[in-house]
Design a protein that fits this description.
The protein is an alpha/beta fold. It is built from 29 helices and 23 strands. The protein folds into four domains: 181 residues, Orthogonal Bundle (Hypothetical protein af1432), CATH 1.10.3210; 242 residues, Rossmann fold, CATH 3.40.50; 171 residues, P-loop containing nucleotide triphosphate hydrolases (Rossmann fold), CATH 3.40.50.300; 94 residues, no CATH class.
């Protein structure tokens, strides 16, 4: 009898099970590369669909049975016969997600338990695993005990051990997806695997980067001589640091010193030196990733399609998608490569990368093996939430130490994460001992002083009306506040003052991009321009104002805002410095309510305490930030935060870890808004949603015209209607609980979304 893994494809060919298991094992072991447990990944591939050797599963392929579990038999064989815990967990989870790795949970993998009380209410395709193993062996499969198992030596360090499982899981899941896809894409000549992504040609990429630096950056530079000298110093330092072996690095350099391209140089030369296969850059905000993507596309213009792969919610929208062919094949290829990050350079977000490192879902974990033998860059590293710091550092440290990858934390305000080394070492033996790429960075900060900071006196408060009066007398100024409602209050106080602009995430992505383009053009032309913004302007957004006002905030936020002042140092050439004015908004008795989160409030109070103790603070001195972060860690103790997540990690509960590890609040909805400049696009999307319902493709096209807001207490805002889900067959699919369409005149060309329910729905 021939046993099959999958039913017939468009060429009417069925997929032999032995062929599928052999190919998945081979692919999984290849993806594991030099990992000590590569053999275990191969074993997982051979066993993952062992339950398909059951008669009931073969009947299911013919449409004669249903509701079957075909994975638990292979998981049990891996555990009971080979003592391969990681393989067993990966096999168990390759359809339902990684479950739990406690001793009790492993005992519950016994087939007799599952036959009596299956957690997913399924039936085992065959409760006799030995019979299935004999059929597999009779089908030509050979099973060998791996020499090294993933969890033999590292199970005491929980984060490291769980990451090993996820990486093996990633190898298995991606191999399974790809071989199954190749079957269903097959024709009369056999399976058709998807085309592989481009490879990292470091020699050509470095040549393109050096050409870009010479022809576009240095030739067109209008910055002050000291700024240019600092950029060249950073460029040289990253090149020298690239010669080191894979490790954990920090890159501490002032804003405006050219970190984006200097990091890229490090990554390319480091990859060439150490034969690394991929570069992944993660950033905290979409405003930063759009800017970085634009620059990378300039550097690598003319390179193969998807040499730079963007994986974020706005990928495939805007200017990067203008050159698609008529059938959208390039966009389709981008989406396929994004599934497993099969590209030489990947631009993504912190949320996408870090939450995947702690996920249990096959779709999220599928790309993780692509982080092995890679360079992983984190821009604006200070944005990492403290309550997730210890497990995050442990995972990244283990990824570097055990899998030949390098991790870089780059920022002007480097957190004192090295002080958490002992806490990290409890979760990953390698701890957190980063190497600084620019040991003389304090000298660079001193030479690049571009602003004077005026700090508020103790007890001094500024009313919005008073601040507005001062701003009216300033032609070009950036004002950064802590909350959207503060931005709206200041805009209202500005009245009909001309040349006032607003930037926040109340504006859809296309609208934000347009505002920044207008602001940059006016600044360059010397025209009046007053930009009132939330903190979304701070991290990496390239604007250059002569004067910046910043509401009192965490010290790193004040420094980031200052980085938008005299950024190019052109005022220095005139014997002047930029002016940064820190003010304390008059919020009455609001106190903590004047800040977006409690953690933000705590950090602001540390800034306030340091001001009271030391007087004015020197934001050009990295030592000040080390003191600030250590005070902050002493206050809120990151090692003991998030007790539920810590307990889930301790018990190796992949389900609860995935639920507890969240960088951002997930209780939000997406609202499609009618921005006037994209009215035609809005009406087309609204009509499509009404007529046929929304699909994944609709959501991708709608993302650039969407605003995220908190879900209201009732769950459904009265000012927006839920979008209909696309209907399949004759059964309506209902309505979305995540996507809404704005109803009424509640989108303003300056303010963005302004719903009648007020600011409680706003995300700061």
């Amino acid at each position: 009898m021939i046993y099959y893994a999958h039913s017939n494809n468009p060429a009417s060919l069925w997929h032999p099970l032995s062929e599928h298991l052999t190919e998945v094992a081979s692919l999984a072991q290849t993806y594991a590369a030099d990992a000590a447990w590569a053999g275990e990944a191969g074993l997982a591939g051979l066993l993952h669909d062992l339950g398909k050797y059951a008669d009931r599963f073969q009947a299911r392929l013919r449409g004669e049975d249903s509701g079957l579990d075909h994975w638990s038999q292979g998981a049990w064989i891996a555990l009971s016969k080979y003592k391969a815990i990681a393989a067993a967990l990966a096999i168990q989870g390759h359809h339902i997600g990684l479950q739990r790795g406690s001793v009790q949970a492993l005992r519950e993998m016994q087939l007799v338990n599952l036959a009596a009380n299956h957690p997913q209410h399924l039936h085992l395709s065959d409760p006799d695993a030995d019979r299935l193993l004999q059929r597999a062996q009779a089908d030509g499969l050979q099973f060998n005990t791996p020499t090294t198992m993933a969890l033999q030596n590292s199970y005491a360090q929980a984060v490291a051990a769980m990451l090993d499982v996820r990486l093996l899981f990633s190898c298995l899941v991606d191999a399974d997806f790809l071989d199954t896809e190749a079957h269903f894409n097959g024709d009369s000549e056999g399976k058709r695997p998807r085309p592989a992504g481009p490879t990292l040609n470091t020699q050509a990429a470095l040549a393109a980067l050096n050409r870009h630096m010479g022809e576009r950056i240095r030739a067109g530079a209008q910055a002050d001589a000291q700024v240019l000298a600092a950029r060249e110093a950073l460029w040289r330092a990253t090149g020298e640091a690239a010669q080191a072996a894979p490790n954990v690095f920090t890159l501490t350099a002032p804003t405006g010193s050219g970190k984006t391209l200097a990091m890229l140089r490090f990554a390319l030369e480091h990859a060439a030196k150490n034969k690394l296969k991929r570069i992944v850059l993660a950033v905290p905000f979409l405003t930063v990733i759009e800017q970085t993507a634009r620059e990378y596309r300039q550097v690598f213009a003319g390179f193969p399609e998807n040499f730079v792969l963007e994986h974020h919610s706005l990928a495939g929208l805007g200017e990067e998608s203008e050159h698609r062919d008529a059938d959208g094949n390039q966009e389709r290829q981008r989406r396929l490569l994004a599934e497993n990050w099969d590209a030489p350079i990947v631009l993504t977000t912190n949320v996408q990368l870090l939450e995947s490192l702690f996920s249990n879902r096959p779709s999220s974990c599928r790309k993780l093996h692509s982080l092995m033998n890679s360079v992983i860059l984190f821009d604006e590293a200070q944005s990492l939430p403290q309550h997730l710091a210890v497990p995050t550092l442990a995972a990244l440290s283990h990824l570097s130490a055990a899998f030949h990858s390098s991790v870089v934390f780059a920022t002007a305000t480097q957190p004192a994460f090295d002080s958490l080394d002992q806490a990290v070492a409890k979760h990953a033996a390698s701890g957190w001992k980063p190497v600084e790429m620019v040991p003389e960075h304090s000298q660079m900060f001193e030479s690049l002083k571009r602003v004077n900071v005026a700090w508020p006196k103790s007890g001094e408060k500024r009313a919005w009306a008073d601040l507005a009066a001062e701003i009216r007398d300033t032609d070009q100024a950036l004002i950064v506040v802590n909350l959207k409602r503060h931005a709206l209050a200041l805009l209202e106080a500005m009245g009909d003052t001309p040349d006032v602009f607003h930037l926040s995430t109340n504006l859809c992505a296309e609208h934000r991009r347009a505002v920044l383009d207008t602001v940059r053009a006016r600044l360059k032309a010397g025209q009046p321009c007053r930009l009132i913004s939330t903190q979304c302007v701070e991290a990496g957004v390239d604007v250059d104002f002569p004067k910046v006002y910043r509401a009192l905030a965490p010290l790193e936020a004040i420094a980031q805002a200052a980085g938008r002042c005299n950024r190019e140092g052109r005022m220095n050439a005139k014997g002047q410095l930029g002016e940064v004015v820190v003010f304390d908004p008059d919020e009455g008795d609001e106190k903590r309510r004047g800040y977006p989160t409690f953690a933000y409030y705590q950090a602001t109070e540390v800034t306030r305490t340091m001001l009271a103790l030391n007087g004015d603070l020197d934001i050009n001195n990295p030592a000040v930030f080390q003191t600030y972060y250590r005070r902050l860690y002493n206050l809120n103790d990151p090692t003991n935060q998030n007790t539920e997540l810590s307990e889930a990690i301790k018990t190796r509960d992949f389900v609860e870890v995935a639920r507890g590890y969240r960088l951002i609040d997930q209780d939000t909805i997406q609202v499609l808004v009618p921005w006037a400049d994209r009215w035609d696009t809005f009406t087309k999307l609204r009509a499509e949603a009404e007529k046929t319902g929304i699909s994944a493709g609709w959501m991708r096209r709608a993302q650039s015209l969407a605003v995220s807001v908190y879900r209201t207490k009732t769950g459904t805002p009265a000012w927006a209607i839920p979008a209909k889900l696309r209907q399949y067959g004759k059964t309506p699919s209902g309505v979305s609980d995540e996507w809404f369409i704005l109803e009424g005149d509640y989108y303003d060309d300056t303010l963005g979304l302004k719903p009648p329910e007020g600011p409680q729905v706003f995300i700061a």
